[in-house]
Amino acid sequence: MRFLKMHGLGNDFVVVKADSVPEQPDTLARVVCDRHFGVGADGLVFVLPSEKADLRMRIFNPDGSEAEMCGNAIRCVAKYAYESGMVRKTALRVETGAGILIPRLHLAGERVATVEVDMGEPVLERGAIPMDGPPGRVINELLTVAGESFRVTAVSFGNPHCVIFVSDVAAVDLAALGPKIEHHPAFPRRTNVEFVQVLNPERIRVRVWERGAGATLACGTGACAAAVAGALNGLTGRQVRVGLPGGELFIRWAADNHVYMTGPAAAVFAGEWLGEEPGG
Length: 280
Ligand SMILES: N[C@@H](CCC[C@H](N)C(=O)O)C(=O)O
Fold this sequence. Notes:
Blueprint: E1 2-8, E2 11-17, H1 25-33, E3 43-48, E4 55-60, E5 66-67, H2 71-83, E6 94-96, E7 99-108, E8 111-118, E9 141-145, E10 148-156, E11 160-165, H3 174-182, E12 192-200, E13 203-210, E14 214-216, H4 220-232, E15 239-244, E16 247-253, E17 259-264, E18 266-272
Parallel strand pairs: 2-3, 4-6, 11-12, 13-15
Antiparallel strand pairs: 1-2, 1-18, 3-4, 4-5, 6-7, 7-8, 8-17, 9-10, 10-11, 12-13, 13-14, 15-16, 16-17
The structure holds the ligand N[C@@H](CCC[C@H](N)C(=O)O)C(=O)O.
């Protein structure tokens, strides 16, 4: 299995072009993403043919679960598709678990430097996120986690996000709180978790605990969810620079209710997965 190792702000992926997803993709994702026994990545991404769009993307987390969407991976997939000659368009249509999304490429010569992705409309209804409880939006609502109370705002971009505003993101014990919120019974499909510090109405700082992956250096859908939550809570405007441990994304919640995410994508090496069993 040939692959390309790519990343968006250090959120890293093993990207594989294939006609279909191989058997047992969950097992494959677990071993490929393992940082000691595999290549090491925050996700295994398949670039597949699509009947409805230019291509289809599917992503599997390091724990083997499949995610509906990934903001950093879709920028990588768009770059790969263009630079490999697979889709020679600067506005691509990519089929994902969150519907067909449109990355627009910003070129530097023949290379894709940055990508702006139309991430579609944020999903705010509790039942669609999904999160248990009465119908309506979840904005600044109390959630009790192992005896501690947090005010949360829930947003989905196909995949679920639980956003919590704090005064200092550096002080958050992400490794302790992340898994407790990810597995909180209020989230039937688990959740990604974003701790967000508002620096000013145009700038926020975010640390992410990703569902099925743990702490990562960046999360595109998480940055979009944090930006939407900031605006919904009256803490930010609708355009924000989102500082993540791996770098910065620019997020705009436009008047058409679509969220646009702009950021870089990089390819770092190509390889071949041999899939040897230990001692085999
Ligand atoms: N890193 C991603 C999100 C990847 C999927 C996530 N772990 C989930 O299970 O929803 C991003 O950049 O959006």
